[in-house]
Fold Acyl carrier protein.
Amino acid sequence: MTDRESLRTTLVGLLEDEMGQPYDLDDDAVDLRTGLGLDSVDVVGLVMRVERQFRIRLAMEELLEVKTVGDLLELVFAKKTVGRSLEMGSTSA
């Protein structure tokens, strides 16, 4: 399993926790609000779970661009990849 697949699996678990039901779609293009029925409070809860689980911070400007499950996955993956690169750079110095 790749890092991205592992991250998606974890993200799906967080979505299921927030929605209170299984997320059984393989389509990451599903809209968080209209496709999954998440309201703004649900989205805030999801963001808090994501930040806590992955130990990242998501800026408001970044979140404004997130519309779909795939958008959120890509943002988290990018944050984790950058964070890992920074960690490796600091240990090799």
